[in-house]
Design brief:
Blueprint lengths: L1 E7 L9 E7 L4 E8 L6 E7 L2 E6 L5 E6 L2 E2 L5 E2 L2 E6 L10 E9 L8 H4 L30
Antiparallel strand pairs: 1-2, 1-10, 2-3, 3-4, 4-5, 5-6, 6-9, 7-8, 9-10
Length: 148
């Protein structure tokens, strides 16, 4: 199952910083799909700690972001549609009250397009299936017979 999460300030008309994340609950990985002003690495791993979902980086087990109130059960049941988010890199946590919002839940089996979710380029052993080799289709011009 994949969750789409938006992290931004309490009033997006006043604070335009945001991060859009995909959380793959089966593979226990997340990826940053878009962002402006909220600096997170491109991907990392997910840890569930009670009523919190913790996003850690790919190179370090230190928490980067905590999504308070987001729980995913082992039966893939999601509790919580929004709550507070704590960003570890914030020097002054009182600077901004970050919020997370559940934007979408995709329960379909999705074949990863990104090497991060396909298991390529990882330094640790992966349970991901290998990404198929890309073979471009012949251009239409190569299949056309020219006659006079």
């Amino acid at each position: 199952m994949r969750l789409t999460i938006l992290i931004n300030g309490p009033d997006p008309t006043d604070n335009h910083d945001y991060a859009l994340l995909w959380l793959d609950t089966e593979e226990r990985r997340w990826s940053r799909e878009a962002h402006s002003g909220i600096e997170l690495p491109e991907w990392g791993e997910i840890e569930n700690r009670g009523t919190e979902t913790v996003l850690v980086g790919s190179a370090s087990p230190a928490p980067l972001c905590v999504l308070h109130g987001l729980q995913v059960s082992r039966h893939q049941e999601v509790s919580g549609a929004g709550g507070l988010a704590t960003l570890a890199h914030e020097v002054d946590p009182a600077r901004t009250d970050w919020h997370w919002r559940l934007q979408a839940v995709d329960r379909a089996q999705v074949r990863a397009e990104s090497a991060v979710f396909a298991g390529e380029g990882l330094t640790r052993p992966s349970t991901f299936p290998a990404h198929p080799t890309y073979r471009p289709h012949p251009t239409p011009a190569a299949n056309v017979r020219h006659t006079r």
